[in-house]
Amino acid sequence: MKDEQERKIAIVTGGASGLGFAIAEKFIKNNIFTILIGRNEQRLANARKQFGDLTTIIPFDLNKLGDIPKLVSDINLKFGRIDILVNNAGINAKKPLIEVTDQEFHEVIHTNLLSVFSLTREVSKIMVSQKEGCIINISSMASRYGIPKVIAYTAAKSGIEGMTKAMAVELSPEGIRVNCIAPGFIATDMSAKALNNDPERKNKVLSRTPMGKLGLPSDIGDAAYFLASDAAKFITGTTIPVDGGNSIGF
């Protein structure tokens, strides 16, 4: 086991539930000290109880862009470095295109794209000074397909994949790798509820997934850990679909 001096420090946004929780769990099991950032203090506290001493929690609203520089500065001051950033936090709004207001569109873009940019910019400053680091963005099948009723989410996640490439080109020469995971249809509480209430959609999802099943949150955790590890030391600027083949299914 690595001692505390060598232990990596990771930040996972939205790490108290869903895919973020699974990513944090995988990191912690592999001796990576993981900082969970999120808005829901109760969920954060519950995650902290489950994860134990290799984690700490920071209740924070990433929509408050002006406060992000201090957040990152405080983390760096306390822990001395930041090795891994996982931009997982996000929101969705399911609504027909012609009913989406400018405000609703803006809110999704703000949370899913602007906050990712601001946090990554500030963390990158630390990583550049370290001459090493790993950034993992979380995209979606919405960036691969035209999915109805999620126009703002689709725009944001398409932007995430574009930013991943641009970030990688600028940051990789500084020793910082930037990659993206595009989860397919994963069996979370939220997705299970949505699909079980819509049998037609569920059948469509499964019929075009060559593996014929939903993924598990741990599949995303495994992919994130791989990208953060030395096993992926020559991988940067790419988006990896973790989707059971859904994105190439017919």
Largest sheet, in brief, is: 7 strands, parallel
Name of the CATH homologous superfamily: NAD(P)-binding Rossmann-like Domain
Enumerate how many helices there are, as a single number. 8
**Widest β-sheet, arrangement of strands:** 3-2-1-4-5-6-7
- What is the radius of gyration? 18 Å
First-residue to last-residue Cα separation:
45 Å
| Mean pLDDT level | 95
Given as residue ranges, the uncertain stretches (5+ residues, pLDDT < 50) are: none
Instruction: Please bin the fraction of helical residues.
Output: 40-55%
CATH class: Alpha Beta
Q: What is the CATH-assigned architecture?
A: 3-Layer(aba) Sandwich
Which structural class fits the helix and strand makeup? alpha/beta
Care to count the β-strands?
A: 7
CATH fold annotation: Rossmann fold
Task: Note the overall shape.
Answer: globular
The succession of helices and strands, N to C, reads EHEHEHEHEHEHHHE
**What is the strand content?**
15-25%
Total number of distinct structural domains: 1
InterPro entries: NAD(P)-bd_dom_sf, Sc_DH/Rdtase_CS, SDR_fam
Keywords: Oxidoreductase
Protein name: 3-oxoacyl-ACP reductase
Family: Belongs to the short-chain dehydrogenases/reductases (SDR) family.
